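ARCHIVE CARD
Drawer: 12
Card no.: 0347
Subject: one protein chain, sequence and derived structure
Cross-reference: see card 0346
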Amino acid sequence: MTRSELLDGVARDLAARTSELGLRVGVNGVDAAGKTTFADELAECMTALGCPVVRASVDDFARPRNERYARGRYSPEGYYRDTTDLEALSARLLQPLGPGGSRRYVTRVFDVWDDRPVEEPERTAPEGAVLLLDGIFLLRSELRGLLDYAIFLDVDFGTCLERALVRDSGRVGVDEAETRAIYARRYFPAQSLYFDNARPLERADLVIDNRDLAAPRVTRERAGRRGGSGSPAQ
């Protein structure tokens, strides 16, 4: 199966699960697994099917740098516990788009590169809107019940590091040695902590092997009730 065929199939399945209440979909995986690209492409497929889409990323709900690194630059615990403003993510995006929510939401509260809060005007989601949220640690217990469907992109650490060296090492102030160090000492150990605590591969509704970007493949799919936001990922 080609990438476009898989994406089209996932989009059609999500469209069939959506009701007037909408659907909150998380695209999860380890760092550099391809979450953002996958969610962007999935959004295009769903839009082509006529589904209104709200696109968001956990990165835009980050906490300030001094809080993210309060436990140390290379702390896995700090990366897992302190990276995301879970209260803002829940109150300003996930709950409003859930059952009984106001439908008024924002997709960004913090600029992680400039390390400053962002004031984004609220928008109102149309009926049947599908939220596609990509990011790390989405299946943690603190967010349980706030996603209706979860996709996990399964990629081994070695492949993710190779991708990160291409993506991250060219950024200002980040060389290859630093990229290797932060992945080895902070990011991947934090993901191991996440696997132990949240067991995302078991909780995800759909697991996709995304090592081959041209030909990702479904490795596990959980049967579930179709028809909207009534069956949150557990």
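Annotation on reverse: Residues 225-234 have pLDDT under 50 and may be disordered. The longest helix spans residues 176-198.
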